[in-house]
Design a protein that fits this description.
about 0% strand
Amino acid sequence: MGGEGLVGMEAAAAAIGVSVPVLRFLICFVTTIPVSWAWRAVPGSFLKHLYSALTGAALSYLSFGFSSNLHFLVPMSLGYIFMVLFRRYCGILTFFAAFGYLIGCHVYYMSGDAWKEGGIDATGALMVLTLKVISCAINYNDGLLKEEGLREAQKKYRLLKCPSLIEYIGYCLCCGSHFAGPVYEMKDYLEWTERKGLWSRDSKQGPPSPYGATLRALLQAALCMGIYLYLVPYFPLSRFSEPIYQQWGFWKRLGYQYMSGFTARWKYYFIWSISEAAIIICGLGFSGWTDTVPPKPKWDRAKNVDIIGVELANSAVGLPLVWNIQVSTWLRYYVYERLIQKGKKPGFLQLLVTQTVSAVWHGLYAGYIIFFVQSALMIAGSRAIYRWQQAIPPSMDMLRKVMGFINFAYTVLVLNYSCIGFMVLSMHETLASYGSVYYVGTVIPVVVILLSYIIKPSKPRRSQAHKDK
């Protein structure tokens, strides 16, 4: 880049309060939208796969440099080699190899510190790519299994034959979708590229126009960035280590924790809204039609967050369904459900292991580990409150509503307390912020969980009509 161009980048970065590397990433990230739109005009499946691969690699190079593509090649190559040579074990081999390499990159680059200080590297994109490579290998592994006894997700996404190399690379790097997700399945990618299934032009309705939904996502992105830029000067993370924070009373410190978490979430809402627009405009985000009259198109495959669902969550149990939706779905399909033994119900252990995998995927910072352990406690406590609520007879409607409000308040409190660890990352800062409010967001879930073993809710009585059935 020439001197004038660099000066221009520095001026533009200073104007919006980010570093030059972050600005370069944002430009490439937003460019995924027109790049994805242009995919629609590429003829033939082979050329579409080639276009997906080349544009993804080019955007990675422009955003992170040449080394990024070398990093991406490692898990991609290992996953494909395992699928070709060791199909019977390719799922588990790819899982540990891809995660091992990702952890190595997390440790080497210490990406969390870089992100906090305004820098950026390819580790975030490698995180998304890791999940895609693993799911592809596991689904190819599942193709060896008999359909009887498989879960619905396994039946839907299993691969009976190995994807070609160009299909595989196109899937991994598709138009830069690995920058921030969403994570999607190889089978969906192939059907979309080959115009089969939902995307078949021979189907009754055919694929819908994506432009209205794309515009909505772009407007949402602009609103989210505006809110974030407005709030962030008032609620900086640095305040937690300043003397003035320690001078505040309990309620003001707790309120500041809430506002810090609330502010930070708008940054993620912006990123996911842009990625949603890119996946919608190329058509891959289409997930079917509603049952309404007239039917309306659904774009659930592109959706990574439900903003209202997060901010007004009435139960922590539902948070994975509205926050980082596609990654939560991946964790459910490829970790949580596969830990459940046949004939047994899932318990706290499966939840804790799943949250631990999620923590390691984000990086080996104490703040991540603590946050996801906190999340497991938060969800378990919320389930206990819900069970108590459901045990209340319908005749006591007001008490049921009170319990519902308690679950909502519990979720808001514990979520915004817990997420400070996710943002500050270090053990010292995490424990200091938690300790400043007397660990209230840890004590309450533990107390609720312990009480659930003492105050066991009775099962709701079934109606006589149900019994007769």
